[in-house]
Structure formats: C-alpha cells, structure tokens
Amino acid sequence: MMWWWMALSVLGSMSVTGPLGIAVAVWLLAGRTWRLSLSWCLLFGIGMLLVVATKVAWYGWGIGIPEWKFAGLSGHAMRACAVYPVVFYLMFLKARPMVRHAALAAGVLLAGLISLSRVPVLAHSMSEVVLGGAVGLAVAAAFILTARSEQPAVVGRILVALCVPLVLVMPFTKPVPAEQWVREVAMQLSGNEPAKRTWKLAPHRVRLPQLRQAI
C-alpha cells in the first residue's frame, strides 16, 4: 500500500510539476496567447510564493498553527492542484463540453490523490495538505476562468507531446532540494535555527478498496 502513496507523491514533486508548469506556459506561447501565458505564470507564481512564505515564516520564526499541526502549505499539494487540472483541461480544450468537463474532473481527482499521499508518507499534516491544495485549486480555477475568453491556436496533442516525456522521465531524475533551499533562506533572513515540529505526523489510514468504491 505504501508504494501507491509514494508513487503518487512523486508526481507532485518539483521535478515533475515544475517542468509541467513550464510546459503549459510554452504551449500557450506556441498558440500565440501571450496574455494567457502571462496569466498562468503569474497565478502559478503567486501560489508558489504563498507556499514559500508560509514555510519561511515557520522555519525562520516558528510562525504556524500548532493546534492544526500546521507549519506551512504543502508545496506538493499546491503544485499538483494547480498544474494537473489545467493540463487535463488544456489537452481536451477542443473536445466536446462533456469530454472536456470529464477531463477536468479527472485532473482534479488526480491532484487530490497526489495531495492526500503526503499524509501517509509522513511529509505533511492534513491541514497543510488541505490548505495547500485549496491554494492550488484556486490557481487552477482562476486560470481556467481566464482561459474561457481566449482560444489557443495549438491543438492539445502538442501539450501531450510536451507533458508525457516529463511525467515518465522526471520522477527518475535527481530530486530538487526545494525544501532545503527554503530552510536556508529562512535561516539567512531570521538568523535563527530552523524551527522544528513539536507534534508527530501520524498517517491517516485510507484503504485502497474504500477509495475505489468512493470513486
């Protein structure tokens, strides 16, 4: 069971979601939708900035919510919930409305599972995952609402061609030490030793058969 959660967790890593976010921007630029590409970069950047800000606040000054076991937004959850719904939406942008909506729902479901995986692998608490995912979904929703007013000229196959190699190859590359970078920045800014959790992260038991029945 743990391999399932670990595999999902990898799909939310910076090594995968970072290049996917760039692929979306490149695809939009190729379709000559400059304003839409800029909107995506700004929205995704704001989401990343919120993640970094909450983590720096925790590592540097211990600012968090102990009652919620909250020490910063989950970057995996935020990136997954921002990127995958948008990727699925754009890949089926030219499809019938029912197919496009189903693809978007699949992207949201995948993002939700990736976010949830951070709890059983003991990387985040449920509050960090939920709040991080909420920020990511807000980013995706804001972009999709903006995209409705514009029609990129490039068909979805190009985005597939960009994304598939990334999803297949990037999980096997060297992980990006993003958390370490954030911790070092926090130490430099605050001059303090990095704060440590005063609570234990306990995995929430989510059984796969139950999950399948829910789906």
From TrEMBL:
Q: Which domain of life is it from?
A: Bacteria
* UniProt-listed Gene3D superfamilies: Phosphatidic acid phosphatase type 2/haloperoxidase (1.20.144.10)
Q: Where are the transmembrane segments?
A: 6-29, 41-61, 73-92, 104-123, 129-147, 154-173
Keywords, comma-separated and alphabetical: Membrane, Transmembrane, Transmembrane helix
Phosphatidic acid phosphatase type 2/haloperoxidase domain: residues covered: 69-145
Q: InterPro entries from the xrefs?
A: PAP2/HPO, PAP2/HPO_sf
Q: Name one Pfam family in it.
A: PAP2
The protein's name is: Phosphatase PAP2 family protein
Organism, as annotated: Pseudoduganella albidiflava
